[in-house]
Amino acid sequence: MDSIPPYLWRNANYIKILAANFLLYFSFMLLTPLLPLYLRDTFGADKELTGFVLSGYTLMCLIVRPFSGYIVDSFPRKMVLLVCNFLFCLLFAGYLVAGSVTLFAIFRTLHGGPFGATTVAASTVAIDVLHPSRRGEGIGYYGLSNNLATAIGPTVAIYLLQASDSYTLLFWICLVCSLLGVLLEVSIKLPATAVTGILPQRHFRLGRLFLARAWSEGLAMACFAFSYGVISTYLAIYAKEELGIMSGSGLFFTLLACGLMLSRLTGARGLRRGEVAKNATEGICVSFFGYLLFAALHNEWGFYGAALIIGLGNGHMYPAIQTMFINLAPSSQRGTANSSVLTSWDVGFGIGVLIGGLFAENVGYHSAFWSAWIVNAVGAVFFMTYTKRHYVTHARE
Fold first, then answer.
1. Residue 87 burial (C-beta neighbours within 10 Å; 0-12, 13-18, 19+)
2. What is the percent of the chain where pLDDT is above 90?
3. What's the rounded Cα separation, in Å, for the pair 90 and 87?
4. How many angstroms separate the CA atoms of 252 and 258, rounded?
5. What pLDDT score was predicted for residue 47?
6. Dihedral over Cα of 396, 260, 72, 187: its sign
């Protein structure tokens, strides 16, 4: 570890992967809120067709992520990162040439693959260039780059579309931003101690798709993701139909992002001191009250207050649990650990969207949001009674 500096902001390789990760998510979020409008305006797609076209991205991402961890652990990590991110960049060109909704759907679905793989590879490289004493803190700031891109991207996209009335311009900006990320990654130098491909790893087995040692952490994470999936997917239509808030989702996500960023800044000290389980516990408790507020208080105070509280809780909880996954894995399985975190979140989020939709359609939004809080409570109790003890016993600090 002598080649890795024990500080963050003079670590050039860490700053490069941080910036590249921001550009990855910025280019992703620049299009995400506007694609339904693009499909409607360009191809005349209705809501059902739009949902079908856009769901392919998420499905492909979910399929690819478990295998991404195996690939990242079995082949040179930097090369895997560059190839995956370049493919992610290249597929933006597909949007420029797609002349039919079918062709667009194909490109959009394919795009989910390199995005899912790149997120795993990039987070693994970020861990490789961090000194162990700054790993938890570094993961927190790394996640903060996602939050900044998520907060800024949609706002910039809407402004650019209003100013230019050109989706083509947005596609080009996404392509250029993602290409800049690839160029930054080219100059990253991994330490000699980083795993860059070990032959025995290339013998594939199903156990390499998920970090079995972290099964309880994954189950808890899936519960927390379930809650977020329900809330984030149905809050806009709930705000409009139940609360009369016509454009409240933008401010909701802004407050959520503010909470995420603030909590990651304040939580960095605890992660630096190695208080991983404590940070996770604090974040879980704060999020628990945020979901309770959202489910119980049906007015603007509950709506916007919950956004800030959930952001504060999740910003404390997510990097801590991700650090728990990393500390439970040997260095040769960091890719598997990262893919396991993301897969746990994706599975929980997807089930939340599905179950939340069934509840909202058949028994109302309030029941859907109470189900989110109940599942969150189950995850919190499970974490407190079993997962935290399991981690302390098995962690590789």
1. middle
2. 31
3. 5
4. 10
5. 63
6. negative
DSSP 396: -
Contact of 309 with 46, CB cutoff 8 Å: no
C-beta separation of 5 from 113 below 8 A = no
Distance CA 271, CA 142 (A): 13
Rounded to an integer, what distance in angstroms lies between the CA atom of residue 346 and that of residue 180?
27
Burial class of 15 by CB neighbour count within 10 A (0 to 12, 13 to 18, 19+) = middle
Between helices 276-296 and 248-272, what is the axis angle to 10°? 160
Report the candidate in 145, 169, 165 with the shortest Cα–Cα distance to residue 30.
169
Any long-range contacts for 343-347 (C-beta under 8 Å, 24+ apart)?
343/62, 343/65, 343/66, 343/210, 343/218, 344/217, 344/218, 344/219, 344/221, 344/222, 344/225, 345/221, 345/222, 345/225, 346/58, 346/61, 346/62, 346/65, 346/225, 347/62, 347/222, 347/225
Residue-wise pLDDT for 73-102, tens only, equals 888 889 999 999 999 999 999 999 988 999
Cα separation of 205 and 125, whole Å?
23
As a whole number of angstroms, the distance between CA 10 and CA 52 comes to 45
